[in-house]
Design a protein that fits this description.
By secondary structure, the protein is an alpha/beta fold. The chain has two domains: about 35-280, Alpha-Beta Barrel (TIM Barrel); about 285-330 and about 390-525, TIM Barrel (Alpha-Beta Barrel). It has helices at about 10-15, 20-25, 65-75, 115-120, 140-145, 160-170, 185-190, 210-215, 230-240, 255-265, 275-285, 305-315, 355-360, 380-385, 400-410, 425-435, 450-455, 470-480, 495-505, 515-525; strands at about 50-55, 80-85, 90-95, 150-160, 175-180, 200, 220-225, 240-245, 265-270, 290-295, 320-325, 335, 390-395, 420, 440, 440-445, 460-465, 480-485, 505-510. α10 links the parallel β8 and β9 (about 265-270). The radius of gyration is 27 Å and the shape is globular. The two termini are about 35 Å apart.
Length: about 525
Amino acid sequence: MRTCAVGTAIRFAYILVHLGRLVACFAGPRIVAAPGFEFFEPVRPPRSFQVMAHRGEARQAPENTRPALDRCIEDGLEWAEVDVRLTGDGQHVLSHEDRLAAGGSPDWRVSGHTLAELQRLDLGVAFASRFQGERVLTLADCLELARHRLNLYLDCKAVNPEQLAAEILQAGMERQVVVFDRLEHLRRVHAASAGRIAIMAKWHPDCGIQPWATAHHLAAVEIDAHEVTPEVCRAFHALGVKVQTKNLGAWDRPEFWDKSVEAGADWLQTDLPEELIAHRLRQRFKAWPVRFSLHRGAGRYAPENTLPAFEKAIRMGADFVEFDVRTTSDGKFYLLHDRTVDRTTDGSGPLTSLTSAMVDRLSAGSGFSRAQAPIRVPTLDEFMTAIQGRAELYFDAKAISPEALAESVERHRLETRTVVYQSPDYLLRLKEINPRIRRLPPLRSVDHLEGLAATLKPYAVDASWEILSKDLISRCHALNIQVFSDALGRHERVEDYLQAIEWGIDLIQTDHPLRLMRAFEVARR
């Protein structure tokens, strides 16, 4: 059993050693000290602080839905904050507001409809067409989804405390949940679960610390980021109480992240988990264990090959940003990966059949989220002007002549900050035009290395991940050639990154920066 503040489950040896304290706890609300509630650790080895995504990764998927939670798991986050409400027939579902933004009617309220009625609504299409058909998520399904993978902060908007406790216990999720609500409801959750479920309340300085926290059996407190201090964190930690800082809105930026972590907060709630983790790792490492490039910008967190994707990549500390360039029917250059605009814009057809005026009217953001519909397909000049000097350029010359590429790079004075990926023949022409622009040919077979080194003298090779080895990397380095490789698809794993880093790879290109950063954390332990 545990003290009131931390539940009932504890090792038998601890009970024997601290029997006197345990008896005192059950005799009244006074608790002298507490060992702390033992939460599940989704990320091992654990970080010094844990990240809590507000309503899941709600900037990349509809809030409080399965995809928003799946993204937290894929990114290796420890926590997701979700909102819980009762339907008209008494079922707990995830929704921040009582009114649902679905169904085309303002009359759709969680409290006014049955679960069966609510699950006919499409909650995804309002965010983006790619989420069409996403349904309201029940608490039971949420708990099952998160089990052994993600901890949950249940923000109780309108719940039945006893029913909530029963659902958590039935799912075996008591070590993966903290319940946030009014104190009167938290007391009922605590009683209904016999202290097995962790509860958390909002703290402000006028609450006090020891009498308030122990009287209410709190396992954690939420503190607005501007109010947290080292002294407050130490006082709560002495009671075995976790500290979560609310880093939202004006507090969701580096100075408040630093303030929270340096004060000793255990969990940071944020809308920008990817930037928070990258920022804190950059503070810790100063230089990454290996350079990395973000594929088409940070395309996981913003529409690929757009200025917001590249701005995000820079904020996440990318050494290189990779981008693709193609040409319109009237000879203008735009950032686009595919031959056609169908997948990444609201238009259709090959780029070569469209004029620049037609491309300028397309949305490059609506497919990612409706909120980003105003984002346009950037021209090459717009991109180079925006990014100048803040990251190196990984130029995938999909459909642009070497002459036009060299002219653009020279005009922006980026010859020494650009590496160009294309075929050996293309790069030989580019070398003749401007040998200062760095060349990056593909390397699909070890047998091709000597020939590329002799004829092209590349800055680096883009080696297929399938042929990577310590020997290959050593051979390239002996020829004064760096080794880049794409960990795209099945090699986006911490184990694969760590192996390549150990072999001495120079740059890893990724679609999953937080997975790569997790490898950085492990490599530097």
